[in-house]
Amino acid sequence: MFRSSGLLVSLAALISSPAVAEIGRIKSSIGIATVQRGTAHIPAASGQDLLPGDWLETGKDGRISLTFIDNTRFAVGPDSRIGLSTFDYNPTTERGSFVTQIERGSIAVVSGRISTSGRDAMQLRTPDSVLGIRDAQVIVEVSK
Amino acid sequence: MTFRGFVLCATFTLAGCAHSSVVLLPNANGGHGEVAILQSGGVAGETIVSDSNTRATLGGSRPSVRPLGAKGLSSSEALLVSALPPAARSFDLYFLEGTTDMIAQSLPVVEQIRAEIAKRPGAEVQVTGHTDTIGNNADNDLLSKQRAKEILNLLVDKGFARTKMSAVGRGERELKVRTADNVRSAVNRRVEVIVR
Hints:
The complex is a heterodimer of chains A (about 140) and B (about 200).
Chain A: H1 2-16, E1 24-30, E2 33-37, E3 40-43, E4 49-50, E5 55-58, E6 63-68, E7 73-76, E8 81-90, E9 95-110, H2 113-116, E10 122-126, E11 129-134, E12 137-143
Parallel strand pairs in A: 9-10
Antiparallel strand pairs in A: 1-4, 1-6, 2-3, 2-5, 5-8, 6-7, 7-9, 8-9, 9-12, 10-11
Chain B: H1 3-12, E1 19-25, E2 34-40, E3 43-49, E4 54-57, E5 64-67, H2 75-82, E6 89-94, H3 107-118, E7 125-129, H4 137-157, E8 165-169, E9 190-195
């Protein structure tokens, strides 16, 4: 009895813990395109929300377009794996930090508010390099 | 991969043979920012790419930076750029003093907002209420929130899902036109709607 009420309490704590805030949304996708969240694979459908730590994955003919709450915009190309490793943003002060991991594939990026909120506050990382994006529009490709 | 190729890659990069490139493009407004190459081939440094239409090939400890030239972007790169979602658009709606009543002149703007939402797949809307500096902060926080809610409800009435929207009130913290305290200002009594 005591044990089961303890379980209830911890469940309640889980449920009432504050939800992780949405950082962006999928606008469109074609082909094989998924959002990997922990062990879950969620279809990258239009309107799907995104959380810090999500990975975007596309197949051979897959593409994903998405936007972030700081007005950053991404277009992800085929055969890509892109991690949204860090995304901290305070909409009131419009400051934050944003680190994207490009494990493979290609991406077009138009930076948003975070990139202007501090020097190299927005970074793109590939397996062999680190880029600071300073209020810029770029294409990054990682070839095998 | 040939043995020689492997040796070359192992010599020049820490991450095997994967190499990457970055292209700096002009911004929509005609200007362009910068890309700082903070690490290449596992070696820290700072190479600034500040001319638009420039490609930097990464992976070596010294990135090679060249103009795109006449060849321009590859077809796959051009396709990527064309797949970018449109930039967010922002609209201002104005209110009668001390009320949540929108002025008549703002009605056509509501229609523009509706049209903008309709043409964007997966649209999301951020509604932010503001006031002028008449009255105290607490009252203005409340009033700005009520204005934002009013507009949110108006958009719900027009068939847009509430779950795709967020509304906040910023009171008199974010004036469109800076004024002293307790100053009437029609431009500051507003709700900003950002469609993304």
